[in-house]
Amino acid sequence: MRKLYNDRPALFSPAPWEVSETDFSEADNKFRESVFAVANGYIGVRGFFEEGFCGAPENSDPVTMLNGVYEYHDYHYMWRRPGFPARTQVITRQANPLEVFVEIGGERVHMTHEGYRRTLDLRTGVLTRTFIFTAKDGNKISLTYERFACQHDKHLLCCRIRIRAEKAAECKVIGVLRPADGGERLPDGEDAIYLPLFLKRDGDVCTVGYKTRRSGFTVVCAVCEAMPCAGVHTVSDGAAELASEFSVSLAAGQEAVYERTVAFACDKDTADAAAFAVQKARDGARCGFDSLLGQSRSVLDEFWDYSDVCIDGDPLVQQGIRFSLFQVFQSAGRDGYTNISANGLSGTVYSGQTFWDTEMYMMPMFTYGLQEISRQLLLYRYHILDKSRQRAKEMDDAGALYSWNTINGEECGYIFEAATAQYHINADISFAMENYFDASQDEEFIVDYGAEMLFEMSKCLSHRGSFSKERGGKFCINVICGPDEYNPVVDNNMYTNYMTKRMFEFTLRVRAMLERKYPQKLKELERKCGMNGAEFDRIALAAEKMYFPYNEEYGMYMQDDNFMYKDALDIDAIPAEKLPLLFSLHPLNLWRYQVCKQADLVLLTFLCSEFFSKEQIRRIFEYYEPKTLHDSSLSAAVHSIVACALGNKEQAYSYLKQASRLDLDDVNGNTSVGLHAACMGGAWMLLVNGYAGLRIYGEALHFAPLLHDTWKGYTFKIQYRGCLLLVRVEKENTYYRLLRGKKLRIFHNGSALEITDRETIAANAA
């Protein structure tokens, strides 16, 4: 096993419900801006300072983002080949909605180390920063900055500043709103990304409007400010900025409070974005900071009620997991038209694009918790189905091929061998849909949306593969890339083949349901998708005849046809500065070795463990684990889950620590550019699927709990088929309590248990 997370000092003191710091370092400011990001699935704001950053500009990335708002950037190839995308989509930087300055006696306040503390409260979603500023005359000014993104209204962001002077002082608060230029330019010219539309004041609301030059999004940011104690309120409006100045004479010990309510709106949400944003800002300001926070808190309360994982006896892991769950929730689009990007809403390094990460790593916590969010994430895939049909045509495929990385449905992956070759994206979406349907019983979704997606996705893969005479008529899928991007353009990637088989079977299951219950809908879909009996016969035969590469000598399945025949590589001998290998080796040198970037076949043994014997899983894990570099943040959680299934406690825990605290402790050294959302989604899986051993076989929940030696216990909930199950694992017993639902049949270490409403059953650990 390659050495992973060591016992380095935690960068944040462990606390069950917060992430807090009492020191500040300019050098790692960008890292902390990522950690202290706040978002609500639409608006994302990194943890930059309201008053601006006083250090070197390269040590701050003060970005505000809107999920789904992007600009087109052209790709430039020396030789562009058919199917290569001509352009990509890049999430854009919005106007800074939180630019506020405080002056004491004419002296501008800047952040200091005295009394410094910054805290992200995971229960409320509020980011709080406090410090003491000493003025030139010796007067000490206590300042508290608070902000949160409204979880109940995606358009709203709130900020509050509390100011208290030790001695009497003249105080001024200046709120500023500027156009969203930021110096950003299109990569192939000098043109600014944004076209300015207006910068104006509408009564008590300041507004700025702008339009992306190529994608054509109109965005409006509206700001409404209030400072009830201010004696004087003046405005200073110009072509470059709008400014509101609030002046107050502070008595000794008196507190002044400034509130700023921000509304973002886009023309993709409403016909008149300007009027909509103004009204939102005005209504939000009338409610006030505390009232909006109460409404927002109620949404977070519901999230934690369903999704919390409580661990007794491991404060570092507890903090890491709750932080992970919170950030995934913050980042999740909830309107059916937006998704979760690889960085969530904490950074722009992945351009705000969505990958397979959502379905395989982030959706499970919602599928078995707040199921409505899973539904909305799947609706996003439905709304880009036409773009996926077009992508299939570009690749000379039938049906629909979902883009490997995208915002609007168009393919953005220009590295064809390790990106656009990953056809398993279709099967991943199907897998997530199948789990959602089985957990929620949401038949309406399948009938209205899911079936059409399944027909088109299965049609694509049934034609991408072929029946091979050389392999006895088996169905093979050649020249693709599985999850492991260090082994691209291979034949018969086991993960892809098996997940495709599962997609085919789910498609046939859904067709049978439609034929039985909704025959007219089935006829409409078959006509729309160009599906006939022959197409479904091909899908059924492909599922039956699917080829799985197997090595008789080793007695186990192979990652693909050729992996085992490549040259060996001692990965423990690779210097740290050479990692990740894709940046230090030419692809032809990298691809010739038995080395994996991330879990691939090991991932399949977790997702579809019913296909493998325990001995098979052990052999696969022991063969591939020493060959896996974990150069992807997606990998550690999966290896922890499988290590748990094999009873490898220490190995599981090492991977657990890496996955749960990857960003909090900046394990990979790149959190400064944004959080690793998929890894954070994996934090829920590694507890529930790993340590608790949750699998779903035969439409029943199966648990095989494992307790780490230092833990007293852990608790979580599962929502399944209208039931809500509380699970508490302790050393001697596991307790199952049915919180909602009449009856639920589960399995504990292979033994069937039937639980009735409000009943608690204790099952022996053995």
Structure description:
The protein starts with 17 loop residues before the first strand and ends with a strand. Helix 7 (371-383) packs across helix 10. It has 3 domains: 36-73 and 89-303, Beta-galactosidase, Chain A, domain 5 (Distorted Sandwich); 308-703, Glycosyltransferase, CATH 1.50.10; 722-764, no CATH class. A 9-stranded antiparallel β-sheet has the order 1-9-10-11-12-19-16-15-14. A 5-stranded antiparallel β-sheet has the order 8-7-13-18-17, with no helix packed on it. The protein is built from 19 helices and 32 strands. It is of the alpha+beta class.
Work out the radius of gyration: 27 Å
Alpha-carbon distance between the two ends: 28 Å
CATH third-tier fold name of the largest domain: Glycosyltransferase
Q: What oligomerization state is this entry in?
A: single chain
Can you give the mean pLDDT? 94
Query: Given the structure, what is the number of helices?
Result: 19
Low-confidence stretches: none
Query: What is the number of domains?
Result: 3
User: What is the top-level CATH class of the largest domain?
Assistant: Mainly Alpha
